[in-house]
Give the backbone structure.
Amino acid sequence: MFFAEYSRRKQVRWYDTNRIPDLSLIQNALEQTYEAAASKQNLIPYKVYVIANNTELNQGLYDLSKGGTGTVTANTNLLTAPYQFIYTARLVTDACEKVQSDMNDYGHIQPPCDPEMYKNPTATQGVCIEVGIHATILSKILIEQGIDVSYTRCFDSDKDKWSDRGLGFVEDDVYLLMSAGYADPDKYCEAPETKPPFENVIKYY
């Protein structure tokens, strides 16, 4: 079931701006993903900002994705998708009593809970793995409902530029952008890039 549905995922660049999934579908998918996604010590060291059908903020994300020269125009999903999910770092200040006890009584180190450590490279590696898990599960749930998704990693990280484009509410480092909506059937085209051979990626010993 997972394979049959997730294998339908395509990197949609153009979304139908006249057909918008009901917000309740997005909310339910986010709640299901929250329950299902694995997280070390259940800390959930990331935050997800949801932009819901806001063309002004979409324009800001699109502008931030165009690169330093302003010539990159492939990320039209950021311009046209009715829903955008911004995955960022999160300083964990609400760890459960068990985790807090382990830190206080036994000296356990939890970088996501430490203001000096939560964005260091070691912590970031773990956070990005968890973001990938969350985005995958969320994608699967949305795809089940006929909603298309896209991922974007090309964007300017300069927080001043985010503020200039109305996105100053994003408090921390951004790791991933994900878009959702219904693909525009008149503009969708299959990406020309192909995967390398299976045996080049998977090795048995």
Summary: The chain has a mean pLDDT of 91.
